Amino acid sequence: MSAAERLDDPGDDAPLYAARKRVYPQAVSGRFRAIKWAVLGVTLGIYYFLPFLRWYRGPNAPDQAVLIDFPSRRFYFFFIEIWPQEFYYVTGLLVLAALTLFLMNAVAGRVWCGYLCPQTVWTDLFYAVERLVEGDRRERMKKDGEPWSVERVAQKILKHSLWLMIAWWTGGAWVLYFSDAPTLVRELATFQAPVVAYVWIGILTFTTYVFAGRMREQVCIYMCPWPRIQAALTDEHALNVMYRYDRGEPRMSAKKAEQARAAGAEAGDCVDCNQCVAVCPTGVDIRHGAQLGCIQCGLCIDACDNVMAKIGRPAGLIGYDTDANAERRKQLLEPVYRVLRPRTVLYAGLIVAIGVFMLAALLGRASLGVTALHDRNPLFVRLADGSVRNAYTVRLINKTLEERVYRLELAGLPEGARLEAVGTHPSGDRTLIAEVGPDRTRELRVLVTLPKGTLEPSVPLSFRLVDIATGAQASVGDFFKSPGSAP
Amino acid sequence: MAAEHDTVDEVTGKTTTGHVWDGISELNNPLPRWWLMVFYATIVWGLAYVVAYPAIPLATTFTKGLLGYSSRESVEAELEGLKALRGESMVRLASAEPEAILADPKLLGVAQALGKAAFGTNCAPCHGQGAQGARSYPNLNDDQWLWGGTLADIKLTIAHGIRNENPQSRVGPMPAFGRDGLIPKADIPHVAAHVRSLSGKKTDGAYDLAKGGKLFAENCAACHGDAGKGNPEVGAPNLTADIWLYGGDMTALVETIVNGRAGVMPGWADRLDPAAVNALTVYVHTLGGGRK
Fold first, then answer.
1. Helix H segments across B53-70?
2. Is residue A345 part of a domain?
3. Is A260 part of a structural domain of the chain?
4. Are residues A213 and A326 in the same domain?
5. Boundaries of CATH 1.10.760.10 in chain B?
6. Distance (Å, rounded) from C-alpha A159 to C-alpha A153?
7. Are A423 and A446 contained in the same domain?
8. pLDDT tier at A485, thresholds 50, 70, 90
9. Average pLDDT over every residue of A186-192
10. Is the preceding peptide bond at A250 cis, omega within 30 degrees of 0?
11. In this structure, are A199 and A300 located in the same domain?
12. A252 and A205 within one domain
């Protein structure tokens, strides 16, 4: 086989466009197929049923375990509650997700693509439906070549209906993450849900049906950026689904191989049965080596192992292996497997470090806060008696689920400074008492007044917030502006 | 043209349109089927739209469309929806006395938010976005009030305005003392210097403060008071506070005394609903200078 053939190089003059070759993956059973079924069950089970899981937080908060509450601007994840300004946690999660992806890739190649990616999982499910309705590979290929019949139309209608139902359920589950799930289900069933819910179900029904039912492997091959990035990130010690060509070549039938071996001639184990190609969900030939179209799902391993068992040769002609071992076997050396490499240690270390950092941030999350915004226009006001007043928009934050009573204190101004805010209870010249309801903020118009006297044009001050019950504190700095020494 | 259509491109085997530019000829490819279908669909859609919705202008009216849609009605429905959404607090905001609003933290929050929005739309053009005022337009953040700073005073001013056609509006213009010859023009600088001295301001040059004081007592004290403390009943400002609406330097004061002052403000009760007037009252009062 020439290099050009291996890369499927069409040559210089061929058109750059190639029509899609329909893929008819064949059913297969084996170790990796079992793993894929399990992963499919677990991931889809989580996705479809998680919104219904309840998690009691108290009377003032929703009891849905995972909820993105846009109207109230809260994100709930089991024991975690995040406010919009804490969205950086999600950034941390995304960083962790990227590093985990890199680590998976360094250890065992495209684990994400082969087992976990939603595109793979839903496509797998849609193929299962297709097989159930229209039969396996040969049957489907035969039927697609025949003229239309009533039975064929009925099968098509049934298949697409089932697909659309799965797609619709997928969209339906999506919107349940954004509202109380049981309530929304009831509203959806009685056509009283908000329009936006139906729109999103429609959008996701469409994308699921098109991506998993129609486009399938083309999403991986033409749309997804990860295969391109993955190829640049991998190294010779990463496990990949690999055809052990040193064992497989030269190919010949089982009978010929036996004769050749008896005669002491060279004979490969590959019998060219094409089972690895037949079961492949992206339609690639693994014997061409690692390639962009291969999502490394391991189904060809199962197919090949089944064939090897039948012809009485050892399993593992196709298996998880490394480029380094392919080279070593060529030199008749023992294979080595190195999971502990600088990059895997680095990725794992970063994952642990960021995880610990995020956990610390989460455990140390302040349940109260205060922010201040100085009035810009006017910066200061001169009162009739010559004193100067500054106004601030001060926001008191209460992240607990009970009402709290706060004491707001003014610090850092000379004698005679006065702190006031309408709607609060004064408690001395420089302090006031304000209640803030559960899980909410309260905006105060805070006035700070200094008596007549010369003052620098800008003097620092700070507002300190104290939770009277627990003594927890937060503070924020700002400035007191005045005309300065001008008369 | 028929002959041109018969020209066949050698490379593709397709006919050409006969258009040639710089030796490049145009293939006679048909429009893509999907594109054509979308194009026909838009024509059908357009026709249906004209029938279903208001579309064609006539001499004095327009075609109403079969669906009876009206953008005006749709806005009104949305405004009704907004009212329903705001619910009870809007009803209470409209009917409650401003004192009661100030005493209820929840209603106060609503009033401040609504007042801020209403202020930005209606009042900010003159008084400024932060109610900081400008020359001739009072700063509403300080505690100096021309027409009184209690909730009732502020509400009356907002509702009916100042020196406008509304009979309930505030009245009390300052005469043009110089222009109308009430005070001899030569003496006006002495009065101006006296007015400056009321707030402790020194004036350079030789002015007869005693004469100015005498003229002040004769002409100005009727409204501004003997001590110049002002009178909110007639909108006469306090002259002792060193807060100047029209400027406190000699030139500005002389101009004020010569020509008089009579700032105006429209009444808002006719233009805004009661809830908005109440909200504005509370908002202005809570800016900082409101009085009990």
1. none
2. no
3. yes
4. no
5. 89-162+266-285, 185-259
6. 10
7. yes
8. low
9. 93
10. yes
11. no
12. no
Residues of A in contact with B109 (CB under 8 A): 423, 442-443
Inter-chain contacts counted by CB atoms under 8 A, chains A and B:
51
- Minimal Cα–Cα distance from A246 to chain B, Å? 47
> CATH assignment of B185-259?
1.10.760.10
Tell me what the mean pLDDT of segment A380-396 comes to.
92
Q: Which residue, of A330, A353, A388, is where some domain finishes?
A: A330
Secondary structure letter of residue A401 according to DSSP? S
pLDDT digits (tens, 9 = 90+) for A108-142: 989 999 999 999 999 999 999 999 999 999 999 99
The answer to the question of residue A340 being in a domain is no
Is residue A262 situated within a structural domain? yes
Print the SS3 string covering A71-122. CCCEEEECCEEECHHHCHHHHHHHHHHHHHHHHHHHHHCCHHHHHHCHHHHH
A301 and A379, same domain (yes or no): no
pLDDT tens for each residue of A216-243: 999 999 999 999 999 888 888 999 999 9
Q: Does domain B89-162+266-285 have CATH number 3.40.50.10170?
A: no
Specify the amino acid at residue B118.
Answer: A
Closest-CA residue of chain A to B238: A384
Give the closest residue to A85 by CA, choosing from A95, A74, A94. Answer: A74
Q: Which residues of A touch B243 (CB under 8 A)?
A: 382, 384
Which of A232, A254, A271 terminates a domain? The answer is: A232
Closest partner CB to B141 (pick from A378, A384, A423): A378
CB A61 within 8 A of CB A81: yes
Chain A nearest-CA distance from B65, in A, is 25
Task: Give the model's pLDDT for residue B118.
Answer: 95
Q: How far are the Cα atoms of A92, A350, A351, A353, B52 from residue A98, in angstroms, in the given order?
A: 10, 11, 10, 14, 52
Q: Which residue numbers in chain B have pLDDT < 70?
A: 1-6
Least Cα distance to A383 among B139, B209, B2 occurs for B139
Q: Are residue A203 and residue A269 in the same domain, yes or no? A: no
- Using a CB–CB cutoff of 8 Å, tell me whether B289 touches chain A: yes
For the entire predicted model, the pTM comes to 0.75
**Whether residues A199 and A269 fall in one domain:** no
**Same domain membership, residue A446 and residue A326:** no
The CATH number of the domain holding residue A378 is 2.60.40.10
Residue in A with minimal Cα distance to B112: A445
Torsion of CA B275, B277, B278, B282, to 10 degrees: 130
> What is the span of the domain harbouring residue A411?
368-485
Contact A462, A411 (CB under 8 A): yes
- Judged by CB atoms closer than 8 Å, whether chains meet at B143 and A383 is answered as yes
Nearest residue of chain A to residue B288 (CA atoms): A447
Let me know: does B281 contact B154? Beta carbons within 8 Å.
yes
Q: Reduce the DSSP state of residue B207 to 3 states and report it.
A: coil
- How are beta strands A473-481 and A458-467 bridged, if at all? antiparallel
Nearest to A395 by CA among A372, A378, A376: A372
pLDDT over threshold 90, residue A199:
yes
- How many whole angstroms separate alpha carbon B264 and alpha carbon B258? 19
- Structure tokens belonging to residue A263: 């005669």
Distances (CA, A) of A375 to A352, A390, A448, B118, B199: 44, 7, 11, 18, 28
Nearest-by-CA chain B residue for A375:
B130
